[in-house]
Specification:
The chain has 375 residues and is mostly helical. The chain has 16 helices and no strands.
Length: 375
């Protein structure tokens, strides 16, 4: 496959599928399994002494290794790839191999040698997956050691709580890994979200003061003077939902094969929150007719349908506020909202104040009629 620079240059997606192709269903490097195998065996030897102080010392050492050099190695990898890409944005390379020059530890050097076989973008994902997968390994390790301790607990006496406290710290370390993985996902999101800007600029230049003929034409309010610059270069003749879906397919779909299930779910959740937040703010700046309300409803449902195929988690819930806004924009008259508000058939995601703000967007609804509504 082509290098990371080729992917960027030709706009064929931010991340390639090579990680999946090279590792099959494995999303993590062997260092994760190796490290936890060694720590497990070392801990078992400590517990086999039947000495609670020895067991506690071993567990403390395990926690120190995981929360120290092991975690730092992956976190620094993610930060280095991210910062290097931000510095070299727009060049032929996403990441630079110079990030390895500051690494002095033997463990980091060995890992770097193996990672050189991957593209830089794949190393970013690999480090991110390693962090997340390690949380599962820590849970398994803690559970295993608790079982080991139960077999010798009768000899611990007053020191039993000491060992239990040390074992609990493994759980706290796992929580810190989860937080670090989430931070890495946020960095990944920061690299990808700017690529949706041209699609949102087309939305910004799209009119929704449509008549029936314009709605039925299928072109909506595309032709608008605001469609210029970056939006025009992205193809302002293409409807904005198609541009959003194109970016989701090009930039996000490959990640389904490269990220662990947990990291993918976290990434998609954050992406939809940010993307739909931008769309909602733009939608609330527009002016609508009834047919414009029909158009924005159609647009949002088109994106929602694609996202349902892309990810299975919470899509309906995330789109609910936007779809409710679109529904309100399709009312025949402002007072019709009273037939729906407060009923048992729908849980509203909009407040009374927000509902009236949406009604104000209809150019044919009178402000005094909206403000007089008793919601």
């Amino acid at each position: 496959g082509g290098g990371a620079g080729d992917i960027t240059k030709h706009g064929e997606g931010f991340f390639s599928l090579l990680l999946h192709q090279r590792f099959g269903v494995a999303h993590t490097s062997t260092v994760v399994d190796d490290v936890f195998f060694i720590l497990k065996k070392s801990s078992e030897r400590g517990f086999s002494t039947a000495s609670p102080h020895t067991a506690a010392a071993v567990v403390n050492y395990v926690t120190a290794v995981l929360s120290g050099p092991y975690k730092d190695h992956h976190v620094q990898r993610i930060k280095a790839y991210y910062n290097n890409y931000k510095r070299e944005a727009g060049t032929s390379s996403l990441f630079s191999s110079k990030i390895f020059s500051n690494s002095s530890s033997a463990a980091a050097a060995a890992a770097a040698e193996q990672e050189q076989k991957l593209d830089h973008d794949q190393r970013f994902l690999l480090a991110l997956n390693n962090l997340q997968a390690s949380t599962h390994h820590m849970g398994t390790l803690r559970q295993h050691l608790e079982g080991e301790f139960e077999s010798v607990a009768h000899t611990a006496g007053n020191s039993k709580e000491l060992v239990q406290h040390c074992l609990a710290e493994i759980g706290e370390t796992a929580a810190s890994f989860t937080k670090a993985a989430h931070s890495g996902v946020q960095r990944l999101l920061a690299l990808l979200t700017p690529r949706f800007r041209p699609a949102l600029e087309v939305l910004d230049g799209t009119r929704f003061e449509l008549n029936e003929a314009a709605f039925n034409s299928g072109f909506g309010g595309l032709h608008h003077p605001a469609n210029s610059g970056a939006a025009a270069s992205a193809g302002s003749h293409i409807p904005w939902p198609d541009l959003v879906i194109r970016e989701l397919s090009t930039q996000v779909s490959p990640l389904r094969a490269c990220l662990t299930e947990e990291n993918l779910a976290s990434f998609l959740s954050l992406l939809l929150d940010q993307l739909l937040g931008h769309i909602r703010r733009m939608v609330m700046k527009k002016s609508y007719t009834f047919w414009g309300g029909m158009q924005i409803d159609k647009d949002i449902r088109q994106i929602s349908s694609f996202c349902n195929q892309l990810c299975a988690h919470n899509v309906r819930e995330k789109f609910a506020p936007l779809l409710q806004i679109a529904s309100v924009l399709q009312l025949d008259k402002a007072s019709e909202i009273l037939d729906y508000w407060g009923g048992d058939n729908q849980i509203w995601k909009l407040t009374e104040k927000e509902l009236k703000q949406v009604l104000e967007l209809r150019k044919d609804f009178k402000t005094r009629d909206i403000q007089s509504l008793k919601l």
